[in-house]
């Protein structure tokens, strides 16, 4: 086994990978220890894997929706405002994952290499073996996750070839060759799949205590492990660490990217593969019947959130961040001004128009009963759940929000710097029982999912429709149609007419494709998906963001912000700083 000989060497490599990272420490003389000294210090060794968790991109909301047709920012200094207005560049990329993810992978590679040598316990070699297996499994799963984010942010066509990033599957040291070319996208995907398989071999599906030795994996039975030994390592105390179930979800996410139009050139991943990956996971969740009844409002289900503890999840959430304490940060950024917020993210009219009528028909359909003089009546209930429009209520006192230009409050369109630019404010993700009034301020608990089950159901629906058509089930007994019907029923759509629109297109793959994409747009809005979805679908990136100006009781659609994206921007750039250092790297075409 090749070992990195000195912790200073490790730090030097990490600094090369991430020169802007502010969490790498400056070692004092007494901290200069060779890596082998960590073998008897499990906390020091585990710090490597902890660093991997700390770097997960979805540890915080990005709100890159503000660079799409779904939302705009009311702050002209916002990074996504600038991205959408033509300032996205290889040396100005707020979506950069190159430095963060590669530094994380270096830490994970060291953990994989050294885990077998670490003493995690005192004089219990069997438990040490199980701890090493678990931590290596976590590291493989996390490495797959970071590869997914690297491919999403930096994969692309270069001179006609679809490239990914450099595959780093062992620790770099000071003698390593850094000036190496990017691997193909396909090679990167195969490495990701291998990492997931390694994770699945080492990890339990979930971290739960087992009541008897009979439920223990055979390899640990053969070693003579007890139930207590197993529960000590793989039991409920490890909840929210990367599990086998989470690794399966990461595989489905990455496979969907690889099968999509913009990334399918020269790749072997098919939509049938994606459907099988997602379907296998959904079977373990009870199939379509496992769709959480309360999953639509997961962010504001007060009793569910307040009862979370011990690492448990709600039925909607597969993986989440730690809860933390009560906070007001999201609401301070996004509440309307009269609720003492800064109204940062403004949903667009484009997105509002994507919500169908309550009978399920798109608002442009003759059967929709849409009334342009009363545009928010009889609409998809998700419109009210996710967006504050004129006449909605918001805040702890359910105050009516008037977004009209002549409404007389700072909630009105373009009234002050923190007012909406589109006539709408974001409601989704926010706890309306947060009070920002300075004389009576109070925060609330917020749950932040890394992966929701609804996303996996939508991955299955999209892939199954492409692979087998709207009603095809593969080997799973449920179809794209079944999933979309369940999601729309949960939302309260078409309950009085049997969802006549869905029934009318159930035999039309193209129409179902558009409906599935629209359902994904609605269900996952403001969670950081739309920016990447438009790109992997190879859709138009330049649709003008529109709003609604209300004055004297009349409704006028207005243009708010042009989207300035070149056709090459369906792929992100390789950072300019890396190209200047390493001439073996090729930039994606157009950057």
From TrEMBL:
Every RagB/SusD domain range: 335-591
Signal peptide: 1-22
One matching Pfam family: SusD_RagB
Domain SusD-like N-terminal: start-end pairs: 62-211
Keyword annotations: Cell outer membrane, Membrane, Signal
Annotated Gene Ontology cellular component terms: cell outer membrane
Domain of life: Bacteria
Main localization of the protein described in the UniProt heading: membrane
Family, as annotated: Belongs to the SusD family.
Protein name in the entry: RagB/SusD family nutrient uptake outer membrane protein
Species of origin: Indibacter alkaliphilus (strain CCUG 57479 / KCTC 22604 / LW1)
Taxonomic lineage from the root: Bacteria, Pseudomonadati, Bacteroidota, Cytophagia, Cytophagales
